[in-house]
Amino acid sequence: MAAANSDKGTKQQIETAAIVLDCRDHGESDKIITFFCEKLGRITGIAKGAKRSKKRFVNKLEIFSSLRITHTLPQNGRLAFIAEADLLDGFLTLRTDFSCYTTASVMQEIILLATKDMEGDDELYPLLLWAFHNLENQHPPVSVLIFFLIRFYAIIGYCPSLASCHGCGKKLIENESYSFHPQNGSIHCTRCNREQKSTRIQLSCGTLRSLDMALKQPIERLQRLQFTEQSRQEALSFLHLYGRQLFQREIISWAFMDAATNQT
Ligand SMILES: [Zn+2]
């Protein structure tokens, strides 16, 4: 049945909830937009006449906006055709507050690095929407980023192993300091780490327990978790180093985020 309808299916329009990750001018009057969509994941589409449109797209295709879009599905590497967009939430703070903007930019960069078009899943879109809502509602950007990243890495299949020492297998011990090994996403206790030569990120037992909680809590309860200032710094360093290792490159927007959050 799907085959019989496939010809029709390529041009069929569907509605999807989507967040704008990137928007570029194209030619005289069009825009090319990359969205992160519910269920579908990332898609890139063309909005014909969007630069001139007074009605269909005006003030809607701004970066980080949450929309309901009507579009075709991209086929054979072509762009989707974006027919209409309705604004669900403009997330204005994410474009006007420097700390929120740079934090959202790190999330955007990591999503663009780690996902491909039309490889959707059920968890990434709600996580991104949760993060943007919390930034918009003035929750500390650094905490929102920590929760977003630890869960993002887990969803894409690279959940670090933080519950016990990779060397001796012992569970976390209070007041012990652990070193994180980004190459295999694991931690070592002080004793096991003596055999390793290169410098690693140090994580306290408290930081590891907080991160473990951040992985296990339902998303709506995440904001109740509190990190101490030391844990926040340790967690950020670890998430940055681990991301660089996973993607084998620097996360460019991280430096801007660091500069913005250190000002506040
Ligand atoms: Zn050990």
Task: Please explain how this structure is put together.
With 264 residues, this protein is α+β, with helices and mostly antiparallel strands. The protein has two domains: 6-90, Beta Barrel (OB fold (Dihydrolipoamide Acetyltransferase, E2P)); 95-263, Up-down Bundle (de novo design (two linked rop proteins)). It contains nine helices and nine strands. It has helices spanning 6-11, 93-96, 98-114, 124-136, 141-155, 190-193, 205-216, 229-247, 253-263, and strands spanning 14-26, 30-37, 41-47, 66-71, 80-89, 161-165, 177-181, 186-189, 201-204. The strands form two sheets. Strands 1-2-3-5-4 form a five-stranded mixed β-barrel. The chain has a four-stranded mixed beta sheet with strand order 6-8-7-9. Strand 2 (30-37) and strand 3 form a beta hairpin. Helix 3 (98-114) runs parallel beside helix 5 (141-155), helix 4 (124-136) runs antiparallel to helix 5 (141-155) and helix 5 crosses helix 8.
